Amino acid sequence: MKKGFKVISFLFVAFFVVAFLAACNSSSTGGSSKGVSVGIVLPTKDEPRWVQDEQRFKDALADSEYTTEILFSQGSSAKEKENVETLLNKGIDVLIISPHDGEAAGAAVEAAKKDGVTVIAYDRLITNTDAVDYYVTFDSVAVGAAQAQYLVDNTNGSGVPLYLYAGAASDNNAFLFFEGAWSVLQPKIADGTFKIANSSEATALQDKSELTRDEMSKILGQVTTNWDPNEAINKAQTHLTAAGAEMKGDVAILAPNDGTSRSIADTFAADSEISSYIITGQDAEKASIQYIIDGKQSMTVFKDVRTLVKDAMGMAVEILDGKTPETTGTYDNGEIEVKAKQTDVIVVDQANVKEELIDSEYYEASEFTGL
Ligand code: BGC
């Protein structure tokens, strides 16, 4: 089944690449150099995840004369709005944007819509506005569920101390990841397999199989990393200092992404009362692939950015051609149902790291040691 899916995705991707290159040629032969056609705005250069997206966009655009421009918002909604305005002034028809703050980005995309620009939210949804046309994303609920399932499958016995960490509350994905994780962890907390070590809010809610957004906000308020590795270290240190001996030993850690996972892992590894830990991640960042090879991070969720880039650019080309892009579902952004195209994710650990990331030519073997 997986193989079939891969063939279909390959054909799908190949189709868009051809369509995309065709559109590139036609727009350049028209000779109407009216500036930039597709503007791309990414949240920050400070995390390898987004630098990777930039590179994958550049790779996808390398052989074309298609006019695109990529700008980074550096974790600032004001800078993000400025970036959108810069691109609007360059005459873009399509905006592909991954917001720093999903709600605050509403103002920027509303300005784009006023200009007649089609808005594609990329990886992160823009919330509480009707000014977003499409959403290209990974299955983020599945990311959280896969992380949690890994903890369930790789811990033994009962009463395993469980440390919960989450992403930034300004990022809608942080809720989707947590929702997915909670759906798998909650029954295992209820049956005594895990005991929550670091969140009184989560403990208070541990009998609820589904949490409202407000309830998740309360938990995130205690365990957010804000997607910041340094904040993750500080939180982990505080939690370990507060934890009694019964919350040490062999532990499980839900870490939301690779950047925070490495720093939380290092913090736990440095505590002499922690005998072993299983820790999650996501993004398949190079540094985390090395950590997995070295046995310092247990798993990551591989989100093939090449697919996301091709889907987003494929959509942009269809829009420029006056066609309606194909979508596979919708996401409620609090104001409207946004038409979405969703991509699957792959769990990677020591057992399949070579097959999924090297054999698939995502990375080169020479980038790692001890493979
Ligand atoms: C993305 C993750 C990323 C995180 C921090 C999320 O919205 O989906 O891939 O690790 O933001 O940048």
Summarize the structure.
The protein is an alpha/beta fold and 371 residues long. The chain has two domains: 35-132 and 305-343, Rossmann fold; 140-303 and 348-367, Rossmann fold (3-Layer(aba) Sandwich).
What number of structural domains do the residues give?
2
- Output mean pLDDT: 91
Helix content: 40-55%
- Write out the distinct hetero groups bound to the structure: beta-D-glucopyranose
**What's the end-to-end separation, in Å?**
28 Å
Q: What Rg do the Cα atoms give?
A: 21 Å
Q: Proportion of β residues?
A: 15-25%
Task: Please describe what this structure looks like.
With 371 residues, this protein is α/β, with parallel strands linked by helices. It has 2 domains: 35-132 and 305-343, Response regulator (Rossmann fold, 3-Layer(aba) Sandwich); 140-303 and 348-367, Response regulator (Rossmann fold), CATH 3.40.50. It contains 13 helices and 13 strands. It has helices at residues 2-29, 48-61, 77-89, 106-114, 140-153, 172-190, 200-204, 213-223, 229-242, 258-269, 286-293, 305-320, 353-358, and strands spanning 38-42, 68-72, 94-97, 118-122, 134-138, 160-164, 194-196, 249-254, 274-279, 299-302, 329-332, 337-343, 346-349.
Helix-strand blueprint:
Blueprint (H helix, E strand, L loop, with lengths): L1 H28 L8 E5 L5 H14 L6 E5 L4 H13 L4 E4 L8 H9 L3 E5 L11 E5 L1 H14 L6 E5 L7 H19 L3 E3 L3 H5 L8 H11 L5 H14 L6 E6 L3 H12 L4 E6 L6 H8 L5 E4 L2 H16 L8 E4 L4 E7 L2 E4 L3 H6 L13
Parallel strand pairs: 1-2, 1-3, 3-4, 4-5, 5-12, 6-7, 6-8, 8-9
Antiparallel strand pairs: 10-13, 11-12
Helix pairs in contact: 1-12, 2-12, 3-4, 5-6, 9-10
The chain binds beta-D-glucopyranose.
The site of beta-D-glucopyranose has 11 residues, from loops.
